[in-house]
Amino acid sequence: MRELQSRWKRVSLNEVRALSDVISNTLPIILFISFGFLIQRKEILKKSTIIDIKKIVMNISLPAVLFITFINMDFKKEYYLIILCIILLMTILYFTGAILNLFKRIHNPLNPFMSTGFSFGLLGVPLYGTVFGVDNLGKISVIGVGHELYMWFIFFTLLKIKFNNDKFTASTIIEMIKSPLIIGVVLGILLNITGFKGFIHEVGILKGIFTTIQYMANIATPLILIIVGYDLKINKKYLRGSIRIVILRIMVVFIIGYAFKFLVLDALIKDDKLFDYAYFTFLILPPPFSTPIFMDKYNAHEYRDLANNVTVLDTIICIIVYVIFVALL
Fold first, then answer.
1. Which terminus in the chain has less CB density within 10 A, N or C?
2. Cβ pair 155, 120 in contact under 8 A
3. Is the domain defined by 23-328 classed in CATH 1.20.1530?
């Protein structure tokens, strides 16, 4: 009897500790997003200020995160294949969305663009990093490399051609290469594989620069989550259409995504739970927050508002599902 009581106490204590871990890991996400939403509701900051903060995140903090992640990553041969596989997956998702448009009842010009692409930098990195630790960001970042290459070289080019009636030119390639995110990733990888990262920690000036970059990376997660909370606004006019697109997106992403994982990715990465968690985190992410911004730039205002609704709804679903997912873990 005493032994049973002792076991019960140990189980109860483990459950309390597990619950405490869940709360400690997810509470910062919820609080920062709530803080951003409160800033929007109380009009503490203007929209123009948030746009400027986004520029800091996208051009400085997030590239710093990716640079630090890739310079410290333990590169494996299969990672290069994973990058190519993710680009292939993104392309398959796009064409699946295009095929859905053959059915009149669900036809929408946004379907191909809402069936692919994820808010990797602005939501995937902080979600995964907050729960599983910054040291494990390499697991999701290797997925992110293929994703970012696809987004900047293929997705936004197709978006521009569709809604701005533009053509693919050399200037498009130059514009993508100049992206701070791509530069951060490429520099991190180059310094890693050439072994130069060890030299950085030995030279005073370089070490100081590296520390500065680390500081810039540290502010990325709170700023990003505050921005996410600030942007949580739904336009009721497009609610019905956006719900339909969100349902289609979730179905396409999870059916195609996990079929692709079982058939392709599992042959490259075996028995790696952190990678499995990273892949799940990646698939539940909403469409890129930048998509409505680009559509506004191309004067597709009606589709911009619909895309923004889809992104907001999917973001809410993502956060709820992720909290449940972490609780189950």
1. N
2. no
3. yes
Structure tokens at 313: 């709804």
Distance in angstroms (rounded) separating the CA atoms of residues 111 and 119? 17
pTM, entire model: 0.72
Question: For residue 197, what are the contacts with CB-CB under 8 A and spacing of at least 6?
Answer: 71, 72, 191
What confidence tens digit (pLDDT) does each residue in 14-35 have? 656 655 665 666 677 778 888 8
The 10s digit of each residue's pLDDT in 66-125 is 788 778 777 667 778 888 999 999 999 999 999 999 988 888 888 999 999 998 877 787
Under a CB-based contact definition with an 8 Å cutoff, are residues 136 and 274 in contact? yes
Residue pair 37/230 in contact (Cβ under 8 Å)? The answer is yes
By the 10 Å C-beta count (0-12 exposed, 13-18 middle, 19+ buried), 68 is classed as: buried
- Rounded (to 5) percent helix, strand, coil in the chain: 85, 0, 15
Q: Are 181 and 148 in contact, with CB atoms under 8 Å apart?
A: yes
Residue 92: other Cβ atoms inside 10 A: 17
Task: Give helix 125-132 / helix 301-328 axis angle, nearest 10°.
Answer: 10
